[in-house]
Amino acid sequence: MTSQDILDQLQPIFQDILDQPDLVVTRESNAQNVEDWDSLAHINLITTIEKHFKIKFALDQLQGLKNVGEMIDLIETKLAAK
């Protein structure tokens, strides 16, 4: 699965959880530049992403993420290790 495949699958998750049907997420998207991405939304995003990709993130892995691009890279790593 490529980075673009993962990003394509993340789009509807972000749109649904942040309740923004027109939201377009990029690798540079983060909680500072996306409206309504607060701490509660972040938890919901992580939980939904874990279920969608059937992976689990460790807390220390999540704390270092700066944007959606780094999340995609982490998802790729997790999927490759399965």
Task: Describe it.
With 82 residues, the protein is mainly alpha-helical. It has one domain (3-81): ACP-like (Non-ribosomal Peptide Synthetase Peptidyl Carrier Protein, Chain A). The chain is built from four helices and no strands. α1 (3-17) crosses α2. It starts with a helix and ends with a helix. The model has no long low-confidence stretch (mean pLDDT 96).
- Helical content class: 55-70%
| Unreliable stretches covering 5 or more consecutive residues | none
CATH class membership: Mainly Alpha
CATH architecture assignment: Orthogonal Bundle
The number of helical runs is 4
Pairing-aware structural class of the strands and helices? mainly alpha
Task: Give the overall average pLDDT.
Answer: 96
The main sheet comes to: none
CATH topology: Non-ribosomal Peptide Synthetase Peptidyl Carrier Protein, Chain A
Please report the total strand number as a whole number.
Answer: 0
CATH H-tier superfamily: ACP-like
From the alpha-carbon coordinates, what is the Rg to the nearest angstrom?
Answer: 12 Å
Summarize the structure.
With 82 residues, the protein is mainly α. Helix content is 60%, strand content 0%.
Can you lay out the helices and strands and say which pair or pack?
Layout: H1 3-17, H2 39-53, H3 59-63, H4 68-81
Helix pairs in contact: 1-2
Notable traits:
0% strand; mainly alpha; globular; Non-ribosomal Peptide Synthetase Peptidyl Carrier Protein, Chain A; 82 residues; 4 helices
